[in-house]
Automatic annotation (TrEMBL):
Domain RNA-polymerase II-associated protein 3-like C-terminal, residue spans: 7-99
Signal sequence, renumbered to the chain: none
InterPro entries, per the entry: CiliaryAsmbly_MitoImport, RPAP3-like_C
One Pfam family named in its UniProt record: RPAP3_C
Residue ranges the record marks as coiled coil: none
Subcellular location: Cytoplasm
One Gene Ontology cellular component: cytosol
Keywords in alphabetical order: Cytoplasm, Repeat, TPR repeat
Protein name: SPAG1 protein
Length: 131
């Protein structure tokens, strides 16, 4: 049964939903959550809770469910995700395979056109993700 996702009203609620998403390994529900979450609120909602597993399911959800439909929104989420506390730490701990997942998402976004980002924007964000 599909996980029901609602718009979180606090960082605590956001964390609860993310935990449920993680427990179910539910990329579709994660994509739903990201779709209703304002990208610029991500750093606040994640507070200091960002972990490799969370980053990865976000990346996979963006890649499999959002980048094709709404590349601009996917880009915004990637951008604000990189502003989250612990981002650098989590990034440093990603394996080679996990890094390749991130690269695939960037490749997908570079194939798509959006008025939300330019090729230059994408290139500079790639550097932030150390790709």
């Amino acid at each position: 049964e599909k996980l029901r996702v609602w718009k979180p009203s606090s960082a605590y609620e956001f964390g609860q939903i993310v935990n449920a998403v993680m427990a179910n390994k539910d990329e579709a529900a994660c994509a739903d959550l990201l779709t209703i979450t304002e990208p610029k609120t991500l750093p606040v909602l994640l507070s200091n809770k960002l972990e490799g597993e969370i980053l990865l399911i976000f990346i996979q959800s963006l890649e499999h469910y959002m980048a094709g439909k709404d590349p601009g929104l996917a880009y915004q989420h990637l951008f604000y995700l990189s502003k989250a506390e612990r981002f650098k730490v989590v990034l440093a701990l990603l394996s080679k395979n996990e890094k390749e997942e991130v690269q695939q998402l960037f490749d997908l976004l570079s194939e798509r056109q959006s008025d939300q980002y330019s090729w230059e924007d994408l290139e500079s964000l790639k550097k932030v993700y150390e790709l």
